[in-house]
Amino acid sequence: MKKSLVVTTGVAGLLSLLAGSSMAGPDVIVGDLMDISRWGATGGITAYSVGTISCNIGDQNLLWVAGTNQHPVIGQNMFRLKNGRFEQVGQSWLKHGFLALTDSLCGSCSGQGGSVLGVGCSDPYGSGLNGDQGGLGPKFQVNATNGVFSYPFVGQGQTGSVIYKRLQVQTDDINPSLNAGAMYFVEGQYVTQDDAGAGNALNNASHRRINIPSVSATPSFVGETRRERPAIDAWLDNDSTVVLVPLIYNELNSDRQAGKFVVGAKVTDNGDGTWTYEYAIHNLNSHRSARVVSMPTPCGVSLSQIGFHDVPYHSGEPFDGTDWAASHAGDNISWSTQTFTENANANALRWGTLYNYRFVANSAPNAAGSVQLTLFRPGAVGEADVLTASNIPTPGPRACRANFDGIGGVGSADITAFLGAWFADLTGGTTVADFDCSGGVGSADITAFLNTWFANLAGGC
Predict the structure, then answer these.
(1) Which three-class secondary structure state does DSSP give residue 455?
(2) Which of 4, 25, 33 is closest to 201 using CA atoms?
(3) Does the predicted TM-score (pTM) go above 0.90?
């Protein structure tokens, strides 16, 4: 029996607030995103790196020991906000820390550095250092929930082409002539064991807006770094119609080692009796990851333009990049990848990535809807396998199902439209005319439709 966990907006908001506050123990954050390097392009891919300044806002030193797995790894990501869609367009391998300085960006520094980042101290790793290929390791060796990773890491000391291991972005995705009105954001994230062990792993990502004037230009920053806020927050910051709900849960039955997703949604009225539903789900640090995203679609709601978007792995990461399969049957729409048993390297929604799920529906939103995430890796006994984000807009019930063509009121044209869809379903294997929501199309759907049609014709919708 699968266990599930429901997170409501109020509880999630409280947990998010707590996650953004400094706590006892070492607590590393991205205090600033300081500079950007553009390394070049090849094969339609452009490579960047982003400089990060770490700060220890906790009350104990943070370990920073070179040559072991007792130091932070640093990830870099890029995102695009375009036409209401917030998508991740690039990610890097992870910079392995080796030495901490004793600067004071975030407060008064204790003066302790080298193999530790002292209390109150900050340490800059410029974009050149964060783009140095020999010091970049893969994500697959890192458990971002507890901060543990393998050392030595795969590819240590290895270099390659100009894009190898760096923050890779499809050049078309940042070409201004192809992305009119788009906004771009970069994100930095630190992962390390003693920070996670102290329960402070949920505030380790920060983001900053950038301007990309041309495909060959080095981007410039716009505004200040948004500390302790992952880049998905920029979607809401720039669009008040967006809804964001954090999902935070404990792993290993621990009060300290927590995993966090953020579920984002935006619904747009297309003005023609349809609505566009856009979802973005960010995995901040969940090692268990997610393999299924699902939500209710009431009987009679038709969906079209069902889509999915992910961000490519590269440079030898072992993960399968196959798109998730979508399934709309009965009263549910879902997207899924393989199970952990089927393929441990399946294209799960893993830490440090954001995936998108979208469709167009002929039904207005229900603001009190919910989205479920089924986790990918098996958990310990008693841990939840399914997480539910509440108060997410999802399609509501149709107001007048007998008005099948969606034009005016109920009339003979609706019968024609329904029968046309019914015959098309029989030959095409679709379920547009599945009026009784049985999951298939048959004579019972004609009976159910005509009963509703006559009732609405007499009584109105």
Answers:
(1) helix
(2) 25
(3) yes
